[in-house]
Amino acid sequence: MLNMVKRWGLCALLLVTASVHAEQTAEVMEKDVETRMQYLVYLPDDYASTEGDYPLVLYLHGGDESGDDIDKLRTGGLPLLVEQGQEFPFIILSPQNPYTELFFPIERVKTLLDDVVERYRVDESRISVVGYSRGAYGAWMMSEQYPETFAGVVPIAGGGIARYLGRTGEDVAFWVFHGARDDVISLSESVDMVEGLKALGRDVTLTVYSDADHSDVWQRALAEPELTDWLMQRSTAEATEAQTQ
Questions:
Q1: β-pair partners for 24
Q2: Which residues on adjacent β-strands are paired with residue 14?
Q3: Closest CA to 149 of 129, 177, 121
Q4: Contacts by 183-187, CB closer than 8 A, 24 or more apart
Q5: Domain Dienelactone hydrolase: where (predicted)?
Q6: Tell me, what's the pLDDT at 19?
Q7: CB atoms within 10 A of CB 104
Q8: Fewest beta carbons less than 10 Å away: which of 97, 109, 200, 202?
Q9: pTM for the whole thing?
Q10: Which band of pLDDT confidence, cut at 50, 70 and 90, is reported for residue 3?
Q11: Would you say 51 and 45 are in contact if contact means Cβ atoms under 8 Å apart?
Q12: b/e for 160-185, b at 16 or more Cβ within 10 A?
């Protein structure tokens, strides 16, 4: 009986520890009606015990998480992985698209990003954006509209407007994911964007999963063993230093 109690106690301790590591805070930016946006923010486990700046990953969700129920954000993508106890070495900012039928309001997202950068210890040279489905369109749009902001861009199962790719930063790296069996957003949309970037001489990688469809491609992409390191290595600082020499 005593051993059973000890085992249950150990399980409870492990569950508490996991919940601490997986904690992400729900917050609201509400400067005015036009800028109101709910979001989750995840801080690395050692954030409170250190003084340095951290890379930040802006995560833009798919259409199912849109609306005004903040807990929907916890059901997919990076927020779900955090809820499941996965730890990351970077800050994760996950805004909620308030529009259930429209793309992300990227100007509002940028206002939120600037606000979070100001309030948290963020290394501004190491900001990347990851987006899935509708959020992937948002990732493409943000890379085109704010070319100096992002060091890395990871669109998963989404497309964009290829003629605007010339607006993206010359030193930004792109890692594009898509499922060959996607019957919601055609693989050709990602291919068109990748070919456009290649024509511009950009740093771009395309990963296609032959057996993935639209609903499971994000899980495959975010489980890529090298993705976390890839995001950690992205930086605009080296490019800036090279340009000033």
A1: 42
A2: none
A3: 129
A4: 183/213, 183/214, 184/133, 184/157, 184/214, 185/133, 185/136, 185/157, 185/158, 185/159, 185/214, 186/159
A5: 115-215
A6: 38
A7: 24
A8: 200
A9: 0.87
A10: very low
A11: no
A12: bebeebeebbebbbbbbbbbeebeeb
CA–CA separation, 23 and 45 (whole Å): 9
Tell me which residue has tokens 């964009």.
Answer: 160
Q: How far apart are CA 23 and CA 13, in angstroms?
A: 15
Secondary structure, 3-state, 41-71: EECCCCHHHCCCCEEEEEEECCHHHCCCCHH
pLDDT tens track for 87-140: 999 999 999 999 888 899 999 999 999 999 999 999 999 999 999 999 999 999
E strand or H helix at 92, and its extent? strand 91-95
Q: Where are the domains of the chain?
A: 2-244
Edge-to-edge strands of the sheet including 37-42?
24-29, 37-42, 91-95, 54-60, 122-132, 152-156, 173-179, 203-209
Residues 6+ apart with CB under 8 A from 163: 196
Read off the tokens for 160: 């964009």
CATH number of 2-244: 3.40.50.1820
Rounded to 5°, angle at Cα 200 from 195 and 204: 55
Query: Which has the closest alpha carbon to 162: 184, 135, 193, 185?
Result: 193
C-alpha closest to that of 151 among 137, 169, 132: 169
User: Any residues with CB less than 8 A from the CB of 207 and at least 6 apart, and which?
Assistant: 175, 176, 177, 178, 221, 224
Task: For residue 220, give both structure tokens.
Answer: 């495959």
Give pLDDT, residue 244.
42
Q: φ, ψ for residue 139 (rounded to 5)? A: -65, -45
Instruction: Give me the mean pLDDT over the 203-227 stretch.
Output: 98
